[in-house]
Amino acid sequence: MTLSANWGVIATWRMAWEGVSEAANLLQANKAAGEAAIHAVKCVEDYPFYKSVGFGGLPNERGEVELDAAFMDGTSLAIGAVAGVRNIANPILVAQALSRERFNSFMVGGGAEEWAQAQGFERKEMLTERARNHYLKRKRETLDRGLSPYTGHDTVGVITLDTQQNLCVGTSTSGLFMKRPGRVGDSPVSGSGFYADSQIGAATATGLGEDLMKGCISYEIVSRMGRGMSPQQAAESAVYDLETRLISRFGRAGDLSVVCMNARGEYGVATTIDNFSFSVATPSQPAAVFLTARDGKHTLIRPADSAWLEAYQQRITAEVIQ
């Protein structure tokens, strides 16, 4: 197959930047989209200061870390996903393995943990002392006072396009901080947290899963790209249409943010919040972090400056004051 000059990688949040940078190097070296996507997600899962994904992820209301992850190959449409798994070092690797299975490709809880262990995937205590301190502080401030504890629901979602024009997407999250045990959001759900079709494009979402699932937002974005919209048009129209429907029918809408990329390596971003960050690299764009601002039904994009990046690093590594 003739290789294309086009490749690309885009991901939700600043926390993906290191993984996006390394994935870009892999894609430039003509490595497969699946390998690059898994590598980028795994970088986030392994870093203990990213408190919404993997090792160091924030726990549920019982103080237990439950993890969700998914992988999709946009060429074969193969999907693998896990939800509510505990003490699995890299849920994204289990999701990728499940995508190779003809049956049982979406597994949850104890059954998924048993299968992962039987397949030799690394087990690890995923609750760090830092995450436990966050939990104890939030518990005192909310649950112990009869208040709602819910905050924090940042999923890492990574889309990769390789030089053979294959698209893949991977997601990973510890889900809503202080969630009820067993709660699952959009991240491992095909069509909501992610979707990829190498003939069209791919999308992935982050925000309040309960609301993102109401619009099957990732599939909707890919569908709109397939009908001729640019990635930016598809992302903005899908996000703001869903927000409008949620407010008119449900009375409110939570945070909704998406990134997407088409089969030509063009990307789009849309969000209902200010200062949503994303990481991206293409042949014409070295790996960088961008910030967003909402302007009506449009999303404005600007590069993150050094002051913001330094403040971010200080914030995520700051001591948790009890």
TrEMBL record:
InterPro entries: Ntn_hydrolases_N, Peptidase_T2. This is N(4)-(Beta-N-acetylglucosaminyl)-L-asparaginase. The lineage of its organism: Bacteria, Pseudomonadati, Pseudomonadota, Gammaproteobacteria, Enterobacterales. SUPFAM superfamilies: N-terminal nucleophile aminohydrolases (Ntn hydrolases). Pfam families: Asparaginase_2 (PF01112).
